[in-house]
Amino acid sequence: MTTTTEHYPIAIIGAGLGGLTAARVLHTRGIDVPVLELEASREVRTQGGMLDIHEETGQQALRAAELFDDFVKLVHRGGESMRVLDQHGTVLHEEFDDGSFERPEVDRGQLRDLLLDSLPEGTVRWGCKVTSVRVLDASSGRHEVTLASGQSFTTDLLIGADGAWSKVRPLVTDARPAYTGISFLEADLYDAEARHPEQAAAVGSGMLFALGGQTGILGHHETDGSLHCYLGLRVEESWIDTVDFTDIRAAKDTALGLLEGWAPELRGLFANADSGIIPRRIYALPPTLTWERTAGVTLLGDAAHLMSPFAGEGANLAMYDGFQLALAIATHPGEADKALAAYEAELFPRTHAAAVDTAASLETIFSVDSARKVAAQFAAYQDGADARS
Asked: If I label 304, which of 234, 261, 312, 387 is the partner at 20 to 30 A Cα–Cα?
């Protein structure tokens, strides 16, 4: 039997970067809100690899959250370096970290910890898995949220920051993520400089793009000295189910079969992986997704505009969403509809443009002669930046 135990004027579902940024910016404006997270604790899993935090979005959000100076201390020096290789290991384009701080790299887990530690104790309610959400009063926007524990609560402003498979999203749209045609095989090499020097040299100090048409490797040299790599491939959605990824040897053999003819140092990123190989399907929401203004509820981050990771926009947009939504709420105290209308009017065109660019990047990265195309794009961008400066 469910019992309603609490009422929150505002509630955030999801303690990812977007939800935490919203909570932090609200806190700096004197508004404290609970953040409900399905994971049992912050330590329950690793939070992924490196993120490049963009000057115009993620960095702005951190400034609004009054955390920019602390963020700077976490930046991976040298992490803005980047290289593009073809499948034979030929370097087609390379950039070095010049300290410009346009897109500095940071460990996602460290960034999340920075946001968590900036919030009052008890803000994040761990182990709160949402099982259902229902409208109690459509005119006022009051909703009831039920948890797996059987407890429930009500709220006047529900913020869905709960990711790709959001439980909140169905309140505003029937849209669901669709498979992009790309799957990843993820692997890690630890203590790379000492144990895997050939692979460390191939990746460099920052980010690697090694591309060969329908297949590509994306990698990062991380702050702990490891290499975090993804083998991306254009395959059917069901392809992952044809491989037993719990069998590490078989999984590595599968990866190497996909890299037949590639340079040994690039094949070694998977042949020598110290971790298992983890498969991931890549999904995205429609780039043009919008929804009618719905009283008392909105979305941010992947819940609102899930994209593939091929332009590095996801985390940045989620944090910027959180900042913009918190600012709108603080600017319109007691007027949730005005706040949400202002937020969504800015959200839709901004994220539409980013989603279109990201979808185009996916097609370029997994196209014929992809390495040269991507190298040319980076070179053109760099030339433009040099001209502007």
From this structure: 234
